[in-house]
Structure formats: structure tokens, C-alpha cells
Amino acid sequence: MKFFVDSADVDAIAELNDLGMVDGVTTNPSLILKSGRDIVEVTREICAIVSGPVSAEVVALGADAMIAEGRKLADIAENIAIKVPLTWDGLKACKTLTSEGRMVNVTLCFSANQALLAAKAGATFISPFIGRLDDINLDGMELVADIRTIYDNYGFETEILAASVRSVNHMRAAALIGADIATAPPAVIRKMAEHPLTDKGLEGFLRDWKKTGQKIV
Ligand code: G3P
């Protein structure tokens, strides 16, 4: 499974990228606000650090305006993926922008029917929002599984980009289902390394090593 970092925090992205943990980045208007930076400036900086797809989201609601914004965002760097919402106008913009050879990430997906439309509109990525479905007592991971089944049934090439990932359990479940990508906050990715038995085992090893009185270097 590819890891995308869901953030516009350049330092956090760079730290994970140095570890080889970053296959791409996703941003959205809320993450740009959180960064406190200009969208073009911060997106350009991210694109210079990360070689994989970097999603930048349009904010227009009409197809023509989305297409114009998408073209402007795509001019930032070669690895820009234009993010459009899963609305009828977003699907129209997706069809036009992908036909121009641009990567498009269709976001705010909350149903299998929406994902089916996005694939037929030629989406490069589909972003089902797991956490926000869980928030209203629905099963976000079930949506990911449904999309995986439907896409595999018909050989759609659109990549499933599991989004609104809130926990390490979401990462594991998305990988078990076979999502192509999971995009997660830096903290969730870092937390994947943590286990209390690892800490306990390391403590025991170092305690016993100290008793040997030896040094390696
Ligand atoms: O990529 C979408 C993600 O940023 C949304 O996450 O936690 O606001 O649902 P969340």
C-alpha cells in the first residue's frame, strides 16, 4: 500500500519523506488554512520535496471554474494531482482534466455509487472518507471494501486512496482490504511504529546488556 501524507506541514512531510515513507501528499482547503501559508507557495514547496502525486484542491463549485482552477494548480508542478469534490460538476471537471492528461483526485466520496461515477469519469484517484462515515455511526471501511470489489469486478484503473484516516487501525484495515493508497496525518503514520511490547522488550534487552559490562563501540 502506498502512503500519502495528509498534511501541508512541510517539515513533517520532509521528515517522513527522508525515511522513505512518503509516496505522495494530499492537501485540502482546511489543511492549507492550518498551514497558515499561501496555497501556491506551500504546494510548490511540497512538490519540490516529494516526487509522488501532490493533491491540491479546487474551491470553485461550477465545472468551468473548477477546470480553470485545476489548470492553474496543475501549473505549479508536474506532480500535481487536481482535487475536485464528488459533485456532478466535479465529475464534469474530472472528465475534462483527465482527458487533458492531468491527474485528478475525486474527493469527499461517501458512497460506492459515487465511487462508480468517479471511475467512469476517469478519476486517477478516488478518496473515500473513512473517519467521517465512522463519525456518524456508519462503517467507513465497509465503503473502502465495496469500492475495491466494484473496481476489481470491472477492472477500473482508478486508484483507491483511503482518506479521513484517523487511526493505525484504519491503516491496517485499508491494507487488508487492498486500498491502493492510504493518506494519513503524520502522527498516524508515526504511531504505526509503536507497540508496548516492543518498548518492554527493548528495556529488558538493555537491562541485561548493561549487566554484561560490554560495549560495542
Ligand atoms: O484527506 C481528507 C482528510 O484531510 C479529512 O480528514 O479527519 O478531517 O475527516 P478528516
Quick take:
This protein has 217 residues and is an alpha/beta fold. It is built from eleven helices and eight strands.
Explain how this protein is built.
This protein has an eight-stranded parallel β-barrel, surrounded by six helices. Helix 1 (10-18) packs parallel to helix 3 (39-49), helix 6 packs parallel to helix 8 (140-154) and helix 8 (140-154) packs parallel to helix 9 (168-177). The protein has one domain: Alpha-Beta Barrel (TIM Barrel). It is α/β, with parallel strands linked by helices and 217 residues long. The protein is built from eleven helices and eight strands. Helices cover 53% and strands 17% of the residues. The structure holds SN-glycerol-3-phosphate (G3P). Residues 6, 26, 28, 129, 131-132, 163-164, 166, 183 line the site of SN-glycerol-3-phosphate (G3P). The site of SN-glycerol-3-phosphate (G3P) has 10 residues, from helix 7.
Average pLDDT: 98
Query: Which percent bin holds the helix content?
Result: 40-55%
Please identify the structural class as seen in this structure. Answer: alpha/beta
Instruction: Describe the sheet with the most strands.
Output: 8 strands, parallel, barrel
Strands in their spatial order, largest beta sheet: 1-2-3-4-5-6-7-8
Q: Could you give the distance between the termini?
A: 38 Å
Q: Key features?
A:
217 residues; alpha/beta; TIM Barrel; 8-stranded parallel β-barrel; 11 helices; 8 strands; 53% helix; 17% strand; binds SN-glycerol-3-phosphate
